[in-house]
């Protein structure tokens, strides 16, 4: 399967990894849009949240738990952060393997960017 994030999970494509467990992996975004910009992904290939099947919803607890862990590790838990998922065309989703953007490390702009 030609999925860049699956290749990162497999180690075929290098990444700056910040977290890994049996279900979830996280690495720094290659084009950071904030001082801290980490991508958190499930190891299971699911194109978007629209494609999640019954039985896989626990992945989102795993992802959110990893996000809090990473925020603490990177020292932004107290200053604050955003956890963002893009789903589909209007959101600008570019990589069709579920991922959450963990962003912080500075004062972020408004959410209603168009
Ligand atoms: P999306 O727009 O799909 O929500 O976000 C995709 C993100 O993946 C973008 O922020 C982009 O910079 C990041 N990205 C795309 N390819 C790679 C890659 O090969 N390595 C890393 N670390 N990030 C990537
Ligand atoms: Zn994938």
Quaternary organization: single chain
Spell out the helices and strands N to C. HEEEHEE
Approximately how much helix is present in the residues? 10-25%
* Assigned CATH superfamily: HIT-like
Indicate the proportion of strand residues: 15-25%
**CATH fold label:** HIT family, subunit A
Q: Could you say which small molecules are bound to this protein?
A: guanosine-5'-monophosphate, zinc ion
Category by helix and strand content: alpha+beta
Number of domains: 1
Describe this structure in words.
- By secondary structure, this protein is of the alpha+beta class.
- It has a single domain, classed as HIT family, subunit A.
- It contains two helices and five strands.
- Strands 1-2-3-5-4 form a five-stranded antiparallel β-sheet, with helices on one face.
- A hairpin with a 3-residue loop joins strand 1 and strand 2.
- The longest helix has 16 residues.
- The mean pLDDT is 97.
- The chain binds guanosine-5'-monophosphate and zinc ion (ZN).
- Zinc ion binds next to helix 1.
Key structural traits:
5-stranded antiparallel beta sheet, Histidine_triad_HIT, HIT-like, HIT-like_sf, Histidine triad nucleotide-binding protein
Short description:
The chain is an alpha+beta fold and 114 residues long.
List the helices and strands and how they pair.
Elements: H1 4-10, E1 17-20, E2 24-28, E3 36-42, H2 58-73, E4 81-84, E5 100-104
Antiparallel strand pairs: 1-2, 2-3, 3-5, 4-5
